Amino acid sequence: xxxxxxxxxxxxxxxxxxxxxxxxxxxxxxxxxxxxxxxxxxxxxxxxxxxxxxxxxxxxxxxxxxxxxxxxxxxxxxxxxxxxxxxxxxxxxxxxxxxxxxxxxxxxxxxxxxxxxxxxxxxxxxxxxxxxxxxxxxxxxxxxxxxxxxxxxxxxxxxxxxxxxxxxxxxxxxxxxxxxxxxxxxxxxxxxxxxxxxxxxxxxxxxxxxxxxxxxxxxxxxxxxxxxxxxxxxxxxxxxxxxxxxxxxxxxxxxxxxxxxxxxxxxxxxxxxxxxxxxxxxxxx
Length: 285
Hints:
The chain is α/β, with parallel strands linked by helices. Helices cover 43% and strands 15% of the residues. The chain has a single domain, classed as Rossmann fold (3-Layer(aba) Sandwich), CATH 3.40.50.720. It has 9 helices and 9 strands. It is globular, with a radius of gyration of 18 Å. Mean pLDDT is 89; it is low at 1-10.
């Protein structure tokens, strides 16, 4: 990783150490190469801020790659491999991390799959798989983490959804599963608030990540123009929001569904079309 990459989004050199002495588990945090997804970026940032991070992924090779990035940057990381749809495997992985780190303070449910398609053509097997990974797996991880968070005096669970759970994009099962995750977030926040466990949901917009890199250069330009700021988001934008939601600075925030999308979901298609076609805006839109 280059110094320039580490500089994207802000300080990644440990300034602030907001997570010092904590342990955070991030699902879907594996990576390959230098083009990082939101899970890997979140793991790197939380580790840079002092947390011992658990990198939980279905691929041991990808998990090890992220762990090496964390360790090369001076952070502490543990690799964990599990099929997140397997309840026993999830419980064993969460327990193993809590034992290894000595505690568990935060969970970031980042893992997800993105098969898209109209409901008319989505197979039952694809529907069930998307819901198993995007909705059921976060529940299994949260349930396994609950006793460990309690032993640490409470903590934070951050679920990573998508604007596809708020708006129609023709994503079928994906959008439906992400909407379910948002609803589960609010319900868990209600149920586990007395246990001093905060549960929030981040809703990323059109990020330039391995998962979001679709449609080539033309697709990237369209996604850039679809938000208020006219800027492309990256994995680091989601990671910084996750850092805030897992840190003590958000101690009085729970049950929120927070778009991290540069305003994409705050407007309508008609509103953005008017802005993009206004003569005075030109190419600045």
